[in-house]
# Entry
Amino acid sequence: MKNFIRKLINRFTLQTPDILDNLKPRVDIENISKNIEIPFDKKFDKKILDKLRLNQKSFGKLNEDKIFYVIKRTPGTGMFSNITFVLNHLKICEKYNFIPIIDMENFMTIYNEKKKIRNNDNAWNYYFDNLNSYSLNEVYKSKYVIIANDKFFNFFSYNIDKDKELIRLLNSEVKLNRYLQGIYKKSLIKFKHKKVLGIHFRGTSYKRSAGHPLPATKKQMEELTKKILKEDNIDMIFLVTEELNYLDFFKKKFKDKLFYIKSAYRSNKNDAFKIYPRNLHRYKLGREAVLESILLSHCDYFIYLCSNISSAAISFNKNSSQKRYEIDNGSNSKNVIISQFYWYLKRMIPKKLGGI
# Structure
């Protein structure tokens, strides 16, 4: 039974993908460091060391007056789950005056590629600027270094848009690098002088993922989209979906108004991290998630259900007058077996009888 449940999880549900084969850290953290007790400021609550399972390290004699805080998450999960994780740790750094360092080079993620991306091995820098002027090379020669744990603790904020501090940190600290900024600005031209309806239509694994929000049906999406089109004189629909079937559905129903990122990977299976169908595929998956979420934030209207992408789009708040429509179908069963058919069953039942 345990093996059967494990196979179900691996086949159908949201899971932790593997890092690409043969990727190795550039620095042997353990062998070049020693465990120490850092002389913390009096305001530091030492109980947080146990609560967050932080490791205290020393790598050398540099920067004796500073405490670096290395944020890493290996292998990590989706792009904005990783960013939410980073933001929670930035709150800690800000509270205790630690210097935050994001290391997704020696502690690799599912987005790391075997090749450098514009001379970067650090997956954070594939998309974003460094948080400060300190390099990893300098940090790993410094006297006082905290290494964060990979765990997403249950006392962390899970949704950026529900935490004012995370929203502030997202917009003040997470800056697109020059290359991605250029792509973003070029894509935004499409929105110029248009009234845009943004739609985030999740599918694939979300239909079977235990404990996750139940995604919208095609009928729900079509009815709400037609209602907004009729009432608000929409010029363009910007669709974000990872399911190819949903893209084809919108092409059929709203072809004349539809805009989407054509290069983005879509499939009817939960296989984005299982196959490698294009050059630099993992990097591009992250780039697409970041770009699409920011563009959704610019839309005048936004149809969504609760997800990390929609949470980020709301939190970027590029259009303060955006009118939002959340589709809330409740959550899937936390039982892995029941969750495999629960959404499909709810979809067939009339709404007055508890269906969607």
